[in-house]
Amino acid sequence: MTETLNVPASASTDPQPDPSGADAKPAKGRSLWTDAWQDLRRNPMFVISAVLIVLLLTMVAFPGWFTSASPTVGDLTHHYQGEPRYTHFFGEDWFGYDTQGRSVWARMVHGARASVLVGVLVTLSVTLVGGIVGLVAGYFGGWLDSVLSRITDIFQGIPFLLGAMVVLTTFTKSNLWVVIAALLFLGWTQIARVARGSVITVKQSDYVHAAKSLGASTVRIMFRHIVPNALAPVVVVATTALGGYIAAEATLSYLGIGLAAPAVSWGVDVSNGKDALRTAPHILISPAVMVSLTVLAFIMLGDAVRNALDPKSR
Amino acid sequence: MTLLEVRDLHVDFQTRDGVVKAVNGVNYSVEAGETLAVLGESGSGKSVTAQAVMGILDMPPGRIPKGEILFHGENMLTMSKEERRKIRGARIAMIFQDALSSLNPVLTVGYQLAEMFRVHQGLGRKEAKARSIELMERVKIPAAKARVNDYPHQFSGGMRQRIMIAMALALEPDLIIADEPTTALDVTVQAQVMALLADLQREYNMGLILITHDLGVVADVADKIAVMYAGRIVETAPVKELYRAPAHPYTKGLLESIPRLDRKGQELYAIQGLPPNMAKVPEGCAFHPRCPAARDICRTELPPLAEVDDARGSACHFWKETIDA
Amino acid sequence: MGRYVARRLLQMIPVFIGSTLLIFSMMYALPGDPVAALYGEKKPDPAQIAAIKHQLGMDLPLWHQYWNYLTGLFQGDFGTQIATQRPVAEVIEQAFPVTIRLTLFAFVFTVVVGVLLGMVSGLFADKAFDRIVLIFTLLLISIPSFVLGYLFQYLFAFQLDWLTPTVQDSRDIGQLMLPAIVLAALSLAYVTRLTRTSVAENLRADYIRTAIAKGLPRRRVVGVHLLRNSLIPVVTFLGTDIGALMAGAVVTEGIFNVHGVGNTIFEALNRREGSTVVGIATLIVIVYLVASLLVDLLYAVLDPRIRYD
C-alpha cells in the first residue's frame, strides 16, 4: 500500500501492476463514501478506535454509570495521596486518591467531558471556518484568493501552541468556550489550505466545466458539484486533527492557562500530580493514561478514515 | 543456439481475491537479429511474461510456479540473484512505455545513462559521461553535449523515448524488450522512434521482443508474431502469413478492426465484449464469450496450441475453418 | 535563482508583519496594567504612571506603538521588560542559545531516527517491522509531550536512576538528551510516517522499475534512486517543523527545568509581561520564516522540476 501507514491485513496485497485488465471494476452505484465505509468496517484499527470512542462518549454522557464518587470533593484527612487498589473495580479508590483526597478514578471519568467536547467542537468549527475560507479562495481565485491565502500564511506563521497560549493569556478567566475559541483562532488554517487545494482540483474537472457550460448557477455549482467532491481530503485532515486538539486542550490545561477548577480536566490533574511524581506516581499517571488513550482512539480513527478515503491508498 | 527461449512459463499473483493466473504456459523464442512481436490487450499477460524474462516481477505477490526461461541455453530462473542482475541491463535490456515516468525525475539524463557504464563496466565519471554523450548522438538527440546535464522533464516525449532507447542500448545487449515503446507518443513521432529502433537492431544484430497492442506498428518491423489472450498464446505465425490468413478468430477480429483506406465508408469492425477478468477466466476457450464462431465444444474444452504448419500454431478448435474463411 | 530568493523574501514581509502585529495586538489587549503593577500594593500616583507610560511610549495608539517596535527591531531592539527595566534582547541573548541547543538536538534526532525508521519500514511495507513501527508512531503521536516528559522522568530518573530528573547544566549534551527526545517525539513520529509512506509509494514508481531493469545493485536503487525522491516531502515537513519544535520547548523546558526561551516565555505569560512574549514570539516567527525559505530553496535543489519563475 502507498499513502497511508496502517494498512489492514486484508488489504495488504495489492492487485499487481500488469494484469490490470483483470482488476474488477467497482460495481455501479458504489460511491467513494460507501466504498470507504466497506473499507472501514473491515479495518481492525477502526473497530478498536470505535469501541474506545463509544466508551468515552458514554463516560461523557453518563459519568454516573462508571463512578458514584465526586470528582471535586475530597477528604484530606482520610485519603491524602491514598494508594490505588487495582482490584477494587469501579470503586472510589480504584486508582487511589490525589493530593487533595479526591478519587482519581472519579476525576478520570469526569475529565472525559472536557476532552471530548473540546476535540469535537474545535474540529467542527475549524472545518466550518477553514472549509468556507478554502472554498471561497479556491473557487473564486484572483485577488480574493491572494488576500485569503496571505491571511492564512500569517496565521500559519504563528506556532500553534505558542499562539494558543498567547490568546488564552489575554483572557482573565478561561473556560471551555475560551479554550475552543483559542484553538479555532489558530487551527483553521490547516483545513483552509487543504480545502482550497481540493476545491481547485475539483474546479478544473470536466463535470464542473460541463455544469458551467450548461448554465448552472454559482451557488449550484459550489454546493452541488464542488463541495461534495472536494470533501474527502478535508474530512481526512479534520479527523486526524481531532486527536491533536484533545492533546492541545490537555497541554494548555496542564500549563495552567486552559481549563481550571471547577472544571475537571486531565491536563490539570497531570499538573497537580507532578510534584508528587516521586512518591505517588498514580496521581499523574492515571489521568495521563486517559489523555493518551483518548488521543490514541481519535488518531486511530483518523488513520482508518484516511486509509478508507484516500484514493491513492487503494 | 537460440538467443532466448521461454518454455511453458506460468506466472501467478496472490491478490486479496485469491490467486490470479496471469500467464499459463507460454512458449516463445527469439533468435539474434530477429524481431518477435507479442500482441495482446492489456491484461493478456504479455507484459508479465516480459517482466518475468527481465527478472523484474514483484515477487511476492508474483510467483513463477512452472517454466523455464533459457538465455543462450541457460535457465535464468535457477540463477542466483547476482548472476541475473549482471544480465539485466547489460545483456537483456528493456524499454518502457512511458519514458517520463520511467526516467528518474531528479537525476540528469547524463547521470542515468552514465550509470550503466559505471555500474556494469566500472568506468570513471568522466569516461562514462563521454560515452553517454556518444550514445545520445547515436540515437540522434540534437546538441547532445549541451543537453547531457538536462533533466528528463526538459525533453520532448520523442526525445525522452530516445533516451530510454539509448539507455537500453548502452552496453550493446543481445536482446531488447520493448514494452509498448511508442504508445505514449504522437503518431508522427511513433514512426521515427520505431524506425530508429529497427535500424539499431539491424546494426547490432540484436534480438527484439516488441510488446504491443497495436497491429499497425507490427507489420513493418516484426518477423514473427505471438498473439496472447488471457495468459496464453492463441496464435503464433510469421508476420506476413498472419496478416494474409489469420488462424484464430481473435487475431482475425484484431485485423478487421484496423481502419483501412480500401474500406472507407464502411463501419469499422470491433470485437464485441470486454477482455476477461483474470480472476474469473471463462471455462473452455477463454475467448468463447466474444467469439462469433463459438460452438458447444468451445465452452467446455480448452483448445491446445495446434500446429498449423512448421512455423505456425493456433489455439482454436476450428482453426482450419478460420484460416480458409 | 537570485530573483526567486528576492521574490520569496518580499513575500515574507507581509507574513512577518501580519504575524507579529497579531501577537503584538493581543499583548496590547492584555488585561491589567503592567506599569501600575510595578507599585505592588502601594497606591500609585497617576501622574507618575502617565509619565512612565509616556517614557515607554505606551500612551501612543496601537499602530504607533507597533511601528516603534518594528523600527526598533531593525536596530536589534526587542523592547524592554517593564518590571526589571531589562532589554528583552538581553533576556533572549541569555535564553536563546540554550533553546537552540535543545531544538537542534531534537531536530537531528528526529531526522536521523525518523528517516531511518521510515526508510526501513517503507522498504518492508506490511511486514512485521513495519507494523511495529506503525504502533510505535501511533503511541508517540497519542502521548502528549507533557505526559511523555513525566513518564520519562519517572522511568529514567526516579526508577532507573540513569539520568538527573532536571537539567542542571544546559551545556551538557548528556543532560539535554531526555528533554530533547521528549521534544522530538511527535516530529519523530510524523517524519517516520511521512518517510515510510513516501518510500513505499516511490518503490512502486516506474523509474524504480527502470533502475532495477538497468541491473543496478539494490544498494544503488535504494540509495540513489529511491532516497532522493522520497525525501522531498520529508524536507518540506521538517522546514515547517522547526518553529513548532521551538514552541514545543515551552512544555519540555518546563518539565526538565531548562532555562531557555520556552521557560522564559511561559514565565512571562504568567506575569503578563507583554514585551518579553512579543519579543520571543517575533524571534520564533523569524526562525519559522527563514526555515521555510531555506526549505523552499532546498526543495528546488532536490526536485529539478520546480521552476524558479
Automatic annotation (TrEMBL), chain A:
Polar residues bias spans: 1-15
- InterPro entries associated with the record: BP-dependent_transpt_permease, MetI-like, MetI-like_sf, OppC_N
Query: Mainly localized where?
Result: membrane
Q: What subcellular locations does the record give?
A: Cell membrane
Might you report a single GO cellular component term?
plasma membrane
Show the stretches that span the lipid bilayer.
46-66, 116-142, 230-248, 283-302
- Supply the alphabetized keyword list: Cell membrane, Membrane, Transmembrane, Transmembrane helix, Transport
Start and end residues of each stretch annotated as Disordered:
1-28
Does Membrane appear among the keywords? yes
GO BP terms:
transmembrane transport
What are the ABC transmembrane type-1 domain coordinates in residue numbering? 112-302
Q: Does the keyword Transport apply?
A: yes
Q: What is the membrane topology listed in the Swiss-Prot or TrEMBL record?
A: Multi-pass membrane protein
Q: Which family does it belong to?
A: Belongs to the binding-protein-dependent transport system permease family.
| Protein name per its UniProtKB record | Peptide/nickel transport system permease protein/oligopeptide transport system permease protein
UniProtKB/TrEMBL annotation, chain B:
Annotated ABC transporter domain residues: 4-255
Lineage, highest ranks first: Bacteria, Bacillati, Actinomycetota, Actinomycetes, Kitasatosporales
Q: Which InterPro entries match?
A: AAA+_ATPase, ABC_Ni/Peptide_Import, ABC_transporter-like_ATP-bd, ABC_transporter-like_CS, Oligopep_ABC_C, P-loop_NTPase
Q: Which GO terms describe its cellular component?
A: plasma membrane
What is the predominant subcellular site recorded for this chain?
Answer: membrane
The record gives the membrane topology as: Peripheral membrane protein
> From the UniProt record, which GO molecular function terms apply?
ATP binding; ATP hydrolysis activity
Into which family does the record put it? Belongs to the ABC transporter superfamily.
Q: Where in the cell is it found?
A: Cell membrane
Sorted UniProt keywords: ATP-binding, Cell membrane, Membrane, Nucleotide-binding, Transport
Q: What is this protein called?
A: Methionine ABC transporter ATP-binding protein
TrEMBL record, chain C:
Q: Which domain of life is it from?
A: Bacteria
- Which Gene3D superfamilies does this entry report, sorted A to Z? MetI-like
Name the membrane topology term: Multi-pass membrane protein
Tell me where it mainly resides: membrane
Localization in the cell: Cell membrane
Which residues belong to any copy of the ABC transmembrane type-1 domain?
96-299
Residue intervals passing through the bilayer? 12-30, 104-125, 132-156, 176-194, 234-256, 276-302
Membrane found in the keyword field: yes
InterPro entries, per the entry: BPD_transp_1_N (IPR045621), MetI-like (IPR000515), MetI-like_sf (IPR035906)
A single Pfam family it belongs to is BPD_transp_1_N
**What GO biological process terms does the UniProt entry carry, in alphabetical order?**
transmembrane transport
GO cellular component: a single term: plasma membrane
Q: Which UniProt keywords apply?
A: Cell membrane, Membrane, Transmembrane, Transmembrane helix, Transport
Family membership = Belongs to the binding-protein-dependent transport system permease family.
User: In its UniProt entry, what is this protein called?
Assistant: ABC transporter permease
Query: Source species, please?
Result: Streptomyces qinglanensis
What phylogenetic lineage does the species belong to?
Bacteria, Bacillati, Actinomycetota, Actinomycetes, Kitasatosporales
